[in-house]
Prior knowledge:
The chain is mostly helical. It has helices at residues 11-23, 27-40, 45-52, 56-69, 88-101, 106-117, 123-132, 134-137.
Amino acid sequence: MAKIKSVVLSEAERAVLEKGARDGKTFAYRKRCHMILLKADGRTSKAVIQEVGGCEVVVNNWLKRYEEQGIEGLVMRAGRGRRSILQSESDLETVRHCVQKNRQKVSLARAELQETLGKEFSVLTLKRFLKKTVADINGLDG
């Protein structure tokens, strides 16, 4: 039988992990905190994956990362994931101009933006971008 890899937590560490498992910003972070708590209780990796899902290797990798980096190691690093199609740094002025020109028809603004920017995106993508940058688009800088 294999040795059960676990971690010893202080009361403060346990409290931080329990708060993270309960109130964490993302589901993935809450799941990782829960994994560490279960491993700290002496459970096997198989028992942990039966409760939270995933695979044994993932559980052990997060445990190792927690031991090396602490609670910060469970947070998703910046720069992960797909970059957004519309960038506020380069596309904001063009989007502002097209939306002001076609305020009542987002689909017309999208068609004009696709032609101008040479990028393919959906109306929903444009709406998300507008929602994210609404203060800039409407000129509500302060």
